[in-house]
Each structure stands twice: as C-alpha cells, then as structure tokens.
Design goal:
five-stranded mixed sheet; alpha/beta; globular; 12 strands; binds nicotinamide-adenine-dinucleotide
C-alpha cells in the first residue's frame, strides 16, 4: 500500500514561511481515513466485496471536498495523497472547502452498466454517515462521471429521506448539477496555460501541444485548445497514442469515442483514440518524448518519473492529472529548465465549478452556462496570476509558489482559531 508522506517541499515551505507549529502538526497527516467494504451483487447472482475508502485530509477552511475514483490501483494511501492535494488546491483557489478523496479498488471496465450503478449506490450506503453538504462533498474522478454522481446523489437522498443536491457535485444538470461542470477541468487548464503564455508574449498559433490521457479532462482541454488556435499534434489513451504533425481535430476524436460509447450502452468507452481515419499511431512513451511546446498530462499520477524525465523535450509541462510528475522527476525537469504548471492550479477548474454547483444546489438559484464560465474564468485567472507573481517574486517554481500561497492561507486560519502563541507565551 502507498503510505502518505508529507512532501519535502512542504517541509521547506514550513521553514521558509515560519509556519506556526500548530499548523505544521495539523497538516502532517489526514484528519480521518475511513475504510469500508463495498458489497456488489453481480449480474449472475454472485456477491463480491470490494475495498473502498473516504479520506478527509483537512477541514480548516470548510467541509471536505474531493472526487471518488473507481480504479484497481486505489488504496488508503493514494486517497490520503489525493486528499492532501485537494486541501492545497481548495486553499489556493480561495474556496471555502478543505480536502478529501475517496475510491473503490475495482476494475469498473469489467462490470456491466447495472453493476456499476449498484456499486456506486453501495459505496454511498457505506460512507453515508460521513458525507453531506456541510461535512464532506464527493465529486467525479477517474472512471466516475456525471451519470455515476447522479446515482450517488439519488442514493444519498433516499438514505437521508431528504432532497440534498449539495451533498454531491458533478451531477447531471437535470439533477441539480451545474452548467459547464463536465468541461470545467479542461477549460481551467487552458486558462492557466493561456495566462502563462501571455506573460511570455507567446501566442496559441505558435504553440504545439501533446496530450496524454484523452478522457474527460484531457479531451475537453484538447478540444478547447484547438478552438483557441493551438495545434494539438498528439493525443493518447490507455490503448493507443496518435500523432499528426499538422494537427488533429480533438472534437472529431471525442465524437467518435462518445458515439461508440452510446452505441454500446457502456459506462466506459471501449473505443480508443486509435481512430478510423488513419492518423499515425506512435508508442505511448513516444508521445511523452515528442518535440512539442506543451506536454499536457491528463491520465494518471506518476506518468513522468526519474526514469523518463530526461526524455521530455517539451519546454512546458501542464499537469491536468493529479500528481503526474513524481517529486524526483519534478527536480530533474526543473534542472533541465522546464516549466511545470502544477496540478493544484492547472486542474482546479473542476473544483471551482464544483463550488459553483454547491452554491447553486444550496440556494436553488441555477445559473446559465455563461454565468458559470465567467465566474470560473475570473477565479482561475486570479489564482494563476497570484501563482505566477509569487513564483517571480520568490524566484521559485510555480509549484512552490502555489503551495506557499495555499499553506499560508490554511496556517492563517488555524492560527486565527487560537494557537499556542495565545496560551503559551
Ligand atoms: P478519465 O477516466 O475520464 O480519463 C483518463 C484517461 O486517461 C482515459 O482516456 C484513459 O484511457 C487514459 N489513460 C489511462 N492511463 C493511460 C496511460 N498510461 N497513457 C495514456 N492514457 C492513459 O479521467 P479524468 O476525469 O479525465 O481524470 C484524468 C486525471 O485528471 C486524473 O488524474 C484526475 O484525478 C484528474 N482530474 C480530473 C478532474 C475532472 O474533473 N475530471 C478534476 C481534477 C483532476
């Protein structure tokens, strides 16, 4: 099992920023880690029990907030790590949330659509006592989408015998979800990228992009980047990577995947980006090593490690996935002069619109897509500006800048509640 360990960079920030000891203690590990058994009745009548978790890392700034993933590699340590990143991300974005994450160790692609529905509902029954609009608010993550959140929200309402749409975000719009949530993570990543390139006087038309991970976040990012004038020259999913030096049309690829999914009725598209129209297929590793301006990592954590960091040729790495660059690779890329726009900023569009959904679900006042996009854009642009200015002022990486801003905010809140300086002076 992966164990949660506080990154060395965070310890350095504690020291450099003279973060009070109380805050250091509070941020040294998760507040709560709940392990649950998730029973599933298979279509053939057999009962299988999968391990699941819901981890809340910190609630200083508000209720826990974070996604739920269905993945064979998930465990308690991974959930704690992801919950820590959510804590940093929500603080950086100045959202009234702490950080949480959950998951089930399962290969959902081996299940039928009805089995996935029963599994989602079973998970909610297992964690119902610890989630809710004011305590801990789940959302989609890897292999869970709006449909899965709809099942979960429905199950939670049935258990609590109350309509509680604010308990879960990322729901379908007809169940109290927000306009713009599905595209939000990709959209936010593009805003962070645009803001960075503008500071360097660089234009989308002169910028090539390769995208690892053509799922929800990666496909929307690729499509929106294409619309904005960037040249998306390669994309990959778990089955294949494709390349076209003149540029791909990501929306065409996405439509192809979506159509196949609709035709098969599957929860997960069986179809790959390996498409029917003869784009050149390259190796998955070759995509990471392409000579492009921007490498967008939108698949899973640990895509770039010490072993392959030396092969990255892109000058800028955009972390749309959570933790796609290991700390060792992070150091190596920095030594090689590469810029990384870190996950806690680059993929924060998703949680930003989740916050807007939570507000709408609590008030019953639902907004149109333009209103949601404007509010999200404002918050993303502001966070990107603060990160880039802090990085310049401190001559640090953007990741260190983002963590510094977030940790200062959480530490201030912890101190404001009363810390040892009040009692032990
Ligand atoms: P998803 O399941 O929709 O997509 C993941 C994609 O990555 C799939 O296309 C899959 O085939 C591909 N993939 C997996 N392993 C790969 C590999 N080795 N090489 C190439 N492609 C591979 O998930 P998602 O929601 O798009 O999330 C992707 C990442 O973004 C995750 O790290 C997630 O935590 C992060 N994230 C997502 C959101 C969101 O709103 N969806 C928000 C914040 C962060």
């Amino acid at each position: 099992m992966t164990e949660f360990t506080l990154p060395d960079m965070v310890r350095r920030i504690f020291e450099a920023e003279a973060i009070p000891a109380d805050a250091q203690e509070m941020l040294s590990g998760p507040q709560r880690s709940l392990g649950v058994a998730v029973p599933l009745r298979r279509d053939d009548g057999a009962l299988e029990v999968y391990p699941g978790w819901r981890v809340v890392f910190d609630t200083t700034l508000g209720p826990g907030k974070g996604g739920i993933r269905f993945h064979p590699g998930t465990d308690a340590g991974e959930c704690a790590q992801l919950a820590f990143w959510m804590t940093i991300k929500c603080a950086l974005m100045e959202l009234p949330f702490g950080g949480a994450k959950g998951g089930i160790r399962v290969d959902p692609k081996a299940l039928s659509p009805l089995e996935v529905e029963r599994l989602a509902r079973s998970y909610v029954r297992a964690v119902a006592d610890v989630i809710g609009p004011d305590t801990d608010i789940p959302a989609p993550d890897v292999n869970t989408d709006a449909r899965v959140m709809g099942w979960m929200a429905d199950e939670f309402s049935q258990i609590t015998r109350r309509h509680q749409p604010a308990a879960i975000t990322g729901k379908p719009v007809c169940l109290g979800g927000s306009e713009g949530r599905t595209a939000a993570t990709g959209q936010g990543a593009l805003i962070a990228l645009d803001a960075w390139l503008k500071r360097q006087d660089r234009r989308p038309e002169d910028t090539t992009i390769a995208v690892q991970g053509f799922g929800n976040a990666g496909a929307h990012f690729a499509g929106l980047a294409h619309d904005a004038g960037y040249r998306v020259v390669a994309v990959s999913d778990s089955k294949a990577a494709i390349h076209a030096a003149g540029g791909l049309d990501p929306w065409r690829l996405k439509t192809f995947k979506d159509e196949e999914k609709a035709l098969s009725g599957a929860v997960y598209a069986g179809q790959s980006v390996k498409d029917r129209n003869g784009d050149e297929e390259i190796g998955q590793d070759a995509l990471l090593a392409l000579d492009v301006d921007v490498l967008a990592l939108a698949a899973m954590q640990d895509a770039v490690t010490e072993d392959n960091a030396g092969e990255i040729r892109a000058g800028l790495v955009l972390e749309i996935a959570n933790g796609p660059v290991t700390p060792e690779a992070d150091r190596r890329l920095a030594e090689d002069g590469k810029v990384i726009l870190p996950d806690v900023l680059a993929n924060a569009g998703g949680v930003t619109v989740s916050h807007l959904e939570w507000v709408q679900s609590r008030t019953g006042d639902y907004w149109d897509a333009d209103t949601v996009r404007e509010r999200m854009t404002r918050r993303m642009e502001d966070a990107a500006r603060r990160c880039y200015e802090q990085a310049e002022a401190a001559d640090s990486t953007v990741r260190e800048a983002a963590y510094t801003l977030a940790i200062r905010r959480i530490a201030d809140a912890i101190s404001s509640r009363g810390d040892r300086s009040y009692f032990c002076s």
